[in-house]
Structure formats: structure tokens, C-alpha cells
Amino acid sequence: MSALRKRTASTVREKVRRSKTRVGRSLTARKRLTTSEASLVRAILTQPMDYMDSEAFHVPRARQLIFDQADPVRRADVGWYQPLMHDATKAPAKPGASKESIVLTRAEEATLFLQYNFARFKVATLQQRIGSKTPTPKQGEDLLHWYRLSRALRDQIAESNLALVLAMAKRIRINPGDFADQISEGNMALLRSVDKFDIGRGFKFSTYACRAILKAFARQGMKDTRQRQRFPANFDPDMESVDVSAERRRQGEREGASEVKQLMLENAVDLSDIEQIVLQHRFGFEPGRSGRPMTLLQVGKLIGLTKERVRQIQNKALAKLREAVEQRRLPRAKRTDRPAAGWGFSAS
Fold it and tell me: Are 300 and 306 in contact (CB under 8 A)?
């Protein structure tokens, strides 16, 4: 009977030993960090973590009180924010995107900021504890856990207050071409506000963040003004919104001017010699010249006529050209019959 008991006890001890060995191996495998995680740990240790201290961090069971016993906080849906950015990039918006945001209550804000700063407090504590030494696998795992949690809570707070950036942007004048840059600057100011806000003072986060966002907009505006004053040629007219009707009108004027010039150079309307000379000098069509037009007085002195006589010759020549252009643009069935040579106008 004693031998049986001994064998049974030996078997139990062997099972316990094997179980402990398996547990130890699993813990060792779980705590082993990957190369990217080890690099992230080193980067975290080189950047001291700031946080807003609170008495709640130093009481017993602080983690359970701040996280486990806290009321759940609603998660913001930022789908409403996507169409705004898609409008600027001309990309299709996500289907079913919400158009509304949530407004956190004071209690929800307090919970989020307390959790966020506690996570940063734990990172700072681990940084001080590790110092310049190499962290153990357990310390590296804890450091990554609290750091990632702090980033996630920071994003959640910022996403819940994205509407503040747009609300502040509507209060100032923004150049439509600079809208995306302005919103980006406001988002950065919002993130800085999350890092520096102390919920223990009893104020709403929006009170602090709105002022910080407006200051960021003012700094950006002064920076852009100095940039434009220093480099005034940075304006790109191709990026300016185009008036379609005005552009069509200008295009029509350019085409008409080219057509009139071609008619005159070919003398397709039987202009007299004096009419050709007047038009060439008045509108810069004279071959060999720089294309700079002359005044009526200058043309009169050149050809020995009065200013008024030059004006009469010019108007008569232009009337011939105008009629020729109109005849070309009429349907063939409605055109006035003309002699085969030229357009049938008499020379003056």
C-alpha cells in the first residue's frame, strides 16, 4: 500500500513539474518582443512622457478604480467628417457615413482624460524605473501596453471633438484655396490641447480647446501673410476658379481677332491701299514692325492726313471686315452672292 502511495505521489509531482514547465515556456514565449516592438520600446524610453497628475493615481487599486469601475464612454463616429475631406479631394465619400457627431458629457470627459493621463503616468513611471538600463521583457510589455493605450485614448478624445475645429474655422475668414491647410492646423492644435488639458481644474475641454484652435488659426494667418509678402509671385492663376462664360467670351474674341487679321493680310475684302496702311499701323499688322499699334494722330502724321480723316478710313475698313466675318458665319444658303474675285467691295 505504501509503495502504491509513493508511486502515486511521484506521478503527481511529475505532472505538476511538467505543468509548471509548460506554463513557464508559454510565459517566456508571450513576453518575447518582436523586432519592431523592441524598436518602439527604445523610442519610448528616449522621449520623456508628460502627464497631468491627479490624486486618483496614487491611491490603492488606482487602475481598477479608473478603468474597471468607470462608466463606459460613448465612442464617436467620425464618418460625418469624411465627406468634408472627400469634397476637397473629389473622391467618393464612404457609403452610409453619418452626418452627426456626439457631444461628451462632463462625466464622460472626466473619465477619458483621467484614463488618458493615468496611462501616460504609468509610462512615465516605467521610464523612471528603467532609466538607462535594458528593460526586462515584462517591463517592455507593460511599457508597450500603456503607451498604446494612451495613444488610443488620445485619438478617442480628439475624434469626439473634431467638430470644434470646423466650428472655429467658420468664425474666421478662410481663403477657399487654404481650407485644407487651415483644417490641418486646427487638428494639430486640437491634439496639443488634449495633451495639455487638466481636467482637475473643473472646466470643459471645449473652453480650452476653442481658444487654442483660434490662436493656431491666427498664427497660421500671420505666417501666410508674411509668406505672401516675401514671395508675392506664389499665386498660381491656374488654381483659381474659372468663370466658364467669361472664358468662352475671351476665346471667341481671340478667334475673331485671328480671323480678321487673316482676312486683312490676304486682302480678301478688297481693301484699298490707304485702308490697308491705316489698319496695319493702327493695329500693329504692318510686316516687319514689333506689333505695337499707333494712335490716330501718329498714323495721320505718317501718311499726311488729319486725325479725323484717318478715323473715317479706319471705320470704313473695319465695316468691310465686319461684314465679311458675318457672311462667313452665316449658313451657306443665307449668304449674299458675291463676285468670284474677293468679296466684291469697292475700294475707297
Answer: yes
Q: Would 21 be classed as within a structural domain?
A: no
* Residue 41, burial from CB neighbour count under 10 angstroms (0-12, 13-18, 19+): buried
The CA–CA distances, whole Å, from 290 to 188, 234, 263 equal 56, 31, 20
* Torsion sign across C-alpha atoms 4, 10, 13, 18: negative
Domain match, 213 and 328 both: no
Choose one of 144, 160, 176: the last residue of a domain: 160
Query: Given phi > 0 = left and psi -120 to 50 = alpha, else beta, which region is 115?
Result: alpha
What is the distance between the alpha carbons of residues 44 and 123, in angstroms, rounded to a whole number?
Answer: 9
| Residue 307 counted as domain residue | yes
Name the band, by pLDDT with cuts 50, 70 and 90, for residue 283.
confident
9-13, 53-57, 173-177: which range is least confident on average? Answer: 9-13
Query: Are residue 260 and residue 183 in the same domain, yes or no?
Result: no
Residue 63 lies in a domain: yes
Same domain for 174 and 149: no
The C-alpha cell at 153 is 485614448
User: Mind listing the pLDDT tens digit for each residue in 172-192?
Assistant: 766 655 777 888 889 999 999
Give dist(CA 197, CA 195) in Å, integer. 6
Dist CA 306 CA 178 (whole Å)? 57
Domain residues for 312? 255-334
pTM for the model stands at 0.55
